[in-house]
Structure formats: C-alpha cells, structure tokens
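Quick question, first post here. What does this chain look like in 3D?
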Amino acid sequence: MPAPSPWNQLMKQLPAPMRNKYFIVLAVFFFLMIFVDKHDFLTQVKLKNSVDGLEEDKAYFEKEIEQAKQDRYDIEKNKEQFAREKYHMHKADEEVFVIPDKE
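> Answer (accepted):
Ran it through. Tokens below.
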C-alpha cells in the first residue's frame, strides 16, 4: 500500500468547509489580489497617503501664491512702505516701528 501523500494528510486536518475546492480557490484568489498583485492593498494604501500629502502641498502652495500676489500688489502700490515694513529698511538717521494690524 502506498504511503499517503502530505497533501491528503493536510486536507484531512482542515475543517470540512475549508476542504471545499471553491473555498480554496477563492482563498488563493483573494490572497493573490491582496498581497501579491501589482495593485495590491498595501500599494493602494501607500498611493492614497501619497495623494493626500500632495493635496496638502497643493493647498499650501496655493496659499503661498495668493500671498505672493498680495505682496506684488503691495509692492506696486507703494514700494517704499513695503520695503520698510517687510524688510525693516530705513534711512541712516531714522528708526522704523512696525505696528501690526489686529485681525
């Protein structure tokens, strides 16, 4: 009598519902899709985090662009006032005091 194969011994140790060939095929399929596939779950999570970070960067830079546009408008409006307030430039015989607006 031939020795039982290790595969048959393993199958006998599993509970009855897990011995079903459809369950085994589905389990292997889901394992491949979740962990092995090119578009696996872990890759999707990393991509989602990357997209979230890029959206935060986009919002930050849009805010910075608006600030730069406002600064440009202020420079065009009054160059001397902008230089004195923003960069604390002054003439040799004077002092500059910047009083911030309460917002």
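The two ends are 92 Å apart (CA to CA).
Helices lie at 6-13, 21-36, 41-77, 79-87.
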